[in-house]
């Protein structure tokens, strides 16, 4: 009898292992090998000087009240005009709102829908209290130790310069795009893009333009950040989270603190906050599954099997991913109480107290659902829950990683950055790209920079910088990608670029 049981258990175990293995092999998507290409010649020091000059224009977006210094944007325009004479002679440039730039590079085949490359001209301010910690002043445009230093080098003037430099070099080689190419550079991405990307999108929509593909800033090429994978990975954003701020207001009877009731408006509010924090939104593994499926054999076998069999290992994976704030934000709509106010004097019972809770929405969770969820969780008639209209937007639609734009972008990445894996992912913050969601089914978010965790932590922080060699590589990347995307079907394997014409 025990032998029979043992055999049954063994058979079941073999059966289970077989299911796990079959599902794992079906889950992984092996990446096609990419033929090496000869990269176009680019002088990184020359490009670095251009970026340094752009950094000296203090195109700061201030968060509250203070308007941007438009003379800095005019100065940046003048700098770009002098650095890129061929671009400014051959492409049409429109100024939208105060300082947003839209370049049109007319294609030879107007039947093909255009493509749009985006970046932004503005930068975040520098905290004056940190100035003495900068190795080089943030707006001096210093090149030292193989880096260009300053606010906006990484986020994201490198991309403005990278795109225009690529266009200038292609024009020098008499390159003519088949499909029309737009460059859209907003003036206020750091404060929401109302005057920049939103207006470019409105302007283009009015003209009836629809885009084959849109590329904005986004993931970079990193190493050692994704658990279970050693190779460098290029993270391509295929969607971004939405955002919702809810105003929570608790009311109670005012009076003197010598004769209080059981609780005050502040206590009621505190209880509501605690309830929200204790009831996080449920975790969902769909986006992490997309990443790990695309990474295929580059991931450790254990993680491959786990993600291929979330029916069995889902709980374990969720626990593991919840442990870090970054991966936790990739698997759920997050909750963060960020502001609180209440009471004016130590001996007065406050009539009300208020807080702001900010949620970042996974695609699939809507603003309306979230507000309702918060009311249900708080479940207290003394607390009202109202969305803050200017900070409420849905998560973006999803761009298919099977689509021609993603595939062509991934191929170009693997050609220019040999050894890099490519993976689709969910962008956690907000970018300008969300304003273009209505204009194209293929909106992607990628910044072609090889970056360490250290490089990333300097963004919006202290000692922001970009490596000179990486900047040169970025220009080579854009030259190949512009060539690829300028062709029909977003030509997957860029052909050899035309050689320089005599006399040009
Ligand atoms: Zn940015």
Please explain how this structure is put together.
This protein is of the alpha+beta class and 504 residues long. It has three domains: 44-240 and 396-490, Zn peptidases (Aminopeptidase, 3-Layer(aba) Sandwich), CATH 3.40.630; 242-281 and 333-394, Alpha-Beta Plaits, CATH 3.30.70.360; 286-330, no CATH class. 38% of the residues lie in helices and 22% in strands. Strands 1, 2, 3, 6, 7, 8, 15 and 16 form an eight-stranded mixed β-sheet that branches. The chain has a four-stranded antiparallel β-sheet with strand order 11-13-9-14. The chain binds zinc ion. Residues 120, 155-156, 189, 217 line the site of zinc ion. Zinc ion binds next to helix 5.
Offer a concise description of the structure.
The chain is an alpha+beta fold and 504 residues long.
CATH superfamily label of the largest domain: Zn peptidases
CATH top level of the largest domain is Alpha Beta
Radius of gyration: 26 Å
The CATH level-2 architecture of the largest domain is identified as: 3-Layer(aba) Sandwich
In helices, the fraction of residues equals 25-40%
Number of structural units classed as domains: 3
SSE class: alpha+beta
Molecular shape: globular
Count of extended strands:
17
Number of helices: 15
User: How large is the share of residues in beta strands?
Assistant: 15-25%
N-to-C span: 90 Å
Write the SSE topology.
Blueprint: H1 2-27, H2 44-55, H3 70-83, H4 85-90, E1 92-96, E2 100-105, E3 115-120, E4 142-144, E5 147-149, H5 153-172, E6 181-186, H6 197-206, E7 213-222, E8 233-240, E9 242-251, E10 255-256, H7 265-278, H8 286-295, H9 301-308, H10 310-322, H11 325-331, E11 334-342, E12 348-349, E13 352-361, H12 367-378, E14 383-393, H13 404-416, E15 421-427, E16 443-451, H14 453-458, E17 465-467, H15 468-485
Parallel strand pairs: 3-6, 3-7, 7-16, 8-15
Antiparallel strand pairs: 1-2, 2-6, 4-5, 5-17, 7-8, 9-13, 9-14, 10-12, 11-13
Helix pairs in contact: 1-9, 2-5, 2-15, 5-15, 8-9, 13-15
The site of zinc ion has 5 residues, from α5.
